[in-house]
Task: inverse folding
């Protein structure tokens, strides 16, 4: 055991860790009818993504002898379906009292002509305000207060759609504790200059992520003396925050980015319009825009095949098929399933 993991394990055993899963996304690319976490990955045991994630908490419970509180951020759109799914599945065998749900905020959607859209009931059409909405909603829903009251100091925040996410990682915790940084993030080496991932960087001396849509070709291709990409540490939405950092971040508002997505709405003739292609803009805050509030962050580079199996698209790259194969390879190599 190394210095980092022993420090991390100590903190876990002292009940200082909570896990938050961001499950408020619409998952439009996957196209599953229901919250993404309810998707059956197609494993021989037909586990849903939520159950796969919960397995890691059960493993941690058995390993460290503590029940780590699990918070799930949902959206107005998918909250009920998510809560019902957990209830119907008996919380996957995890203690029910350790699982909490809270809803993220929403913002109006805008049509291609720049006008605010109406929903099927003739009211302003709202959509979840992006994963960066997490900070504000943790504060507004008293999640931070709740965590503080039970002595939580470190909070892992991850997406719902990485079926190899290591939500309980003593090494990342130990690294942040040893470096005295109030936050940390995991990175994997970017597969090549063109891979569609955001990469860690420093902006005006502060930690940040530059999105693949923003990076210039010159920056994307730049290599160091070892031939490695200069901007090659991919951000995989696996971050750890000290509660003090979350308290500070939740007081600031983050910028909004627009995303072009599929939406159904009521037009001026009161007809419902649906579309198979993106037809409306939603506004989203990104979790990594909060990093600039921090003086520094610890970045832990991990192996792609051990910790990154995203379920984004229905077929092809980052699809259930690729994620399932990565998941099976990882666990079969460990001889656990
Ligand atoms: P994505 O950026 O993949 O978005 O979210 P998405 O909405 O799930 O999927 P697409 O783009 O429509 O296909 C990355 C993570 O952030 C969460 C998602 O649930 C996922 O875990 N997220 C995203 C939220 O919790 N809320 C949001 O408003 C957006």
Result:
């Amino acid at each position: 055991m190394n210095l980092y993991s022993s420090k991390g394990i100590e903190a876990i055993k002292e009940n200082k860790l909570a896990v938050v899963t961001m499950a408020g996304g619409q998952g439009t690319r996957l196209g599953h009818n229901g919250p993404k976490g309810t998707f059956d990955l197609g494993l021989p045991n037909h586990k849903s993504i939520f159950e796969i994630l919960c397995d890691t908490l059960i493993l941690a419970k058995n390993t460290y002898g503590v029940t780590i509180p699990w918070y799930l951020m949902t959206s107005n759109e998918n909250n009920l379906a998510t809560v019902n799914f957990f209830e119907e599945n008996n919380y996957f065998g995890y203690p029910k009292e350790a699982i909490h749900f809270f809803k993220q905020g929403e913002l109006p959607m805008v049509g291609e002509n720049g006008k605010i859209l109406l929903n099927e009931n003739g009211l302003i059409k709202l959509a979840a305000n992006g994963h960066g909405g997490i900070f504000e909603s943790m504060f507004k829903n008293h999640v931070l207060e709740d965590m503080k009251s039970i002595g939580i100091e470190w909070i892992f925040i991850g997406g719902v759609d990485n079926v190899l996410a290591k939500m309980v990682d003593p090494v990342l915790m130990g690294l942040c504790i040893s470096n005295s940084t109030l936050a940390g993030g995991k990175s994997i080496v970017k597969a090549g200059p063109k891979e569609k991932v955001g990469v860690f960087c420093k902006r005006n001396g502060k930690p940040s992520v530059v999105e693949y849509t923003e990076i210039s070709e010159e920056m994307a291709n730049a290599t160091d003396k070892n031939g490695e990409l200069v901007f090659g540490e991919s951000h995989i939405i696996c971050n750890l925050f000290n509660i003090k950092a979350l308290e500070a971040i939740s007081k600031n508002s983050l910028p909004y980015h627009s995303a072009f997505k599929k939406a159904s709405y009521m037009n001026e003739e009161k007809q419902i319009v649906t579309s198979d292609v993106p037809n409306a803009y939603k506004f989203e805050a990104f979790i990594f825009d909060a990093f600039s509030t921090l003086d520094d962050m610890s970045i832990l580079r991990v192996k792609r095949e051990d910790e990154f199996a995203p379920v984004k698209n229905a077929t092809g790259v980052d699809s259930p098929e690729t994620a399932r194969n990565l998941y099976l390879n990882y666990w079969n190599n460990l001889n656990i399933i």
About this structure: The chain has a mean pLDDT of 96. The chain has one domain: 2-185+236-258+284-333. The pocket of uridine 5'-triphosphate is lined by residues 22-29, 36, 73, 104, 128-131, 133, 159-161, 237, 284, 312 (CB under 6 Å). The chain is about 25% helix and 20% strand.
